[in-house]
Amino acid sequence: MSGPEPRLAPDGEPRLRFAGRVAVVTGAGNGIGRAYAHAFAREGAAVAVVDIDELGARRVVAELEAAGARAIALCADVADEDATREMAERVVGELSGIDVLINNAGLHLGPYNETLALPLAEWRRLFDVNVLGALLCAKACRASMRRRGGGAIVNQSSMASARGVGGYSVSKLALNGLTVSLARELAPDGIRVNGIAPGYVESEAAVEGLSEPLKRSVLEGQILKRFGRVEDLVGTVLFLCSDAASFVTGQTWLVDGGANPRL
Questions:
Q1: Which end of the chain is more exposed for a tag (fewer CB within 10 A), N or C?
Q2: Integer CA distances (angstroms), 72 to 18, 23, 84, 178, 180, in order
Q3: Does the model's pTM come out above 0.70?
């Protein structure tokens, strides 16, 4: 996967913001999570590629290793507490610790854009993955982050959390609340917690989840008249996890082309 070269430090050497650090990226077997995994690897991190799709995770690890990065593939359902605990234990055992957690795994808009018509079992699965999955991963990674002097967590939310689009929207709004709650509780451990709320981004999940009329209406409502790209999210996530954002926590950052401008 191609991407921007790291910025040069004053002495001309590449600045690798995450050299010596370990990043865990869930839902990293494809799409946006894959882009995050590549971005952290380019910045010097060792990366744990976590996905319920083991083959997808292994493919991404092969890409990272071919580029010279250190990476491991882990198969885990983030809604399973035992699985998330085992995932964190393996990362610590194989990569020595955890500094960054990107809670990217989630169920997407397409099948979950209903409210009253959405079966209760689907509501429960949606919240198990989109909300409790982030909680369980944070809980599993906390001890290692604390031992290493702190760290950063980013939760993958959505612009839909401000729009009200069925069960998916409600789950992402709940995730925004969880971000604030975790930020308060984990601050004494030196762990910052933020969220990123993308607008319409041309990813695999978005292609499956939005109709053409809805895509057009989203574009018409944006200040920037283009659809987002996966690469548009990477810079925000890297910033939020870097030392440059050491005074930033408890925030969910909209990266939506100005679809929801705020004063």
A1: C
A2: 17, 11, 15, 28, 30
A3: yes
CA distances from 99 to 24, 27, 47, 86 (A): 8, 18, 10, 17
Give the CB-side neighbour count of residue 22, counting CA atoms within 13 A: 21
Low-confidence spans in the chain with pLDDT less than 70: 1-15, 204-210
pLDDT at 6: 43
The structural domains of the chain, with segments of one domain joined by +, span 22-255
Look at residue 4 in the predicted model and tell me its pLDDT: 39
- The confidence score (pLDDT) of residue 149 equals 97
Distance CA 193, CA 186 (A): 8
- Domain 22-255: give its CATH code: 3.40.50.720
